[in-house]
Amino acid sequence: MKTNRIILVSILTAICLFGGLLLSACDGTPVAKDGDTVRVNYTLTLADGTLFETSVGDEPLEFVLGKGDYLPDFEKAILGMNVGESKTITILAADAYGEYRDDLIFTLDRSQLAAGVEPEVGDILQSVNASGQTSLVTVTAVSDTTITVDANSPLAGKDLTFKIDLLKIS
Predict the structure, then answer these.
(1) Which of 45, 51, 164, 168 could form a disulfide with 39 if both were Cys (CB 3.0 to 4.6 A apart)?
(2) Cβ distance 30 to 83 under 8 Å?
C-alpha cells in the first residue's frame, strides 16, 4: 500500500512539474495561455535605449492572447507568465516590422491628394491603393507640386526590446 502511495505522489509531482500550462506549481495560480484575456503594462525601447512608448502610467494593454492582434513574439512571451511576473524580451527587426525598404518610399503628385489637404513633413496620411487596401504613410518631403511619403512602419529595421508586466488574466 505504501508503494502505491509513493507512486501516486510521484505521478502528481510529475503532473505539477510538466502540466504548468494550466497551473503554476500546482498551487492554483493561473498562468497565461491562448484564449485568455490578459492585461499587461509594457515599455518598448529601441536598440539604442530610446524609449519608443509605454503603457506604464496610462491604460494597460488588454487583449486576447493568441488571437494574433500583436507581434507573435510579444504574445508568445506572455504565454506561461503568472500575474505579477515581469519579463524583458528583444524581438529582432525581421520578426517585428521587417527591414526598412526603400521601395516603400513614393513621390506623389499633389493633385492626387484630397481637396484642401496641405501636408507637412511628419504628417501621417491614410493611403488607399488600387485594390482598396488602406495604409498609413509618413510625409517626408513637400514641394509645390509633389509630396514624398514613406510607407515603412516607423519601427521597420529596428530591433525592439519590451519589458512586459502581466497584471491580470481573465
Answers:
(1) 168
(2) yes
